[in-house]
């Protein structure tokens, strides 16, 4: 009779999902990589020139 019970399709409980790999924490926190994008420098302002004189001088 035992053979008939096993032949009836008795299933084991579902297996556990695959193990998640451990998260490795970097012990070298003092070594900070350089940023991926270069920081932008502020553009230079307009050149400083003395004010222009009048375009048309009346004599």
Automatic annotation (TrEMBL):
Domain of life: Bacteria
Region listing for Disordered, in residue ranges: 1-59
Protein name: Uncharacterized protein
UniProt biased composition (Pro residues): 41-53
Natural source organism: Massilia cellulosiltytica
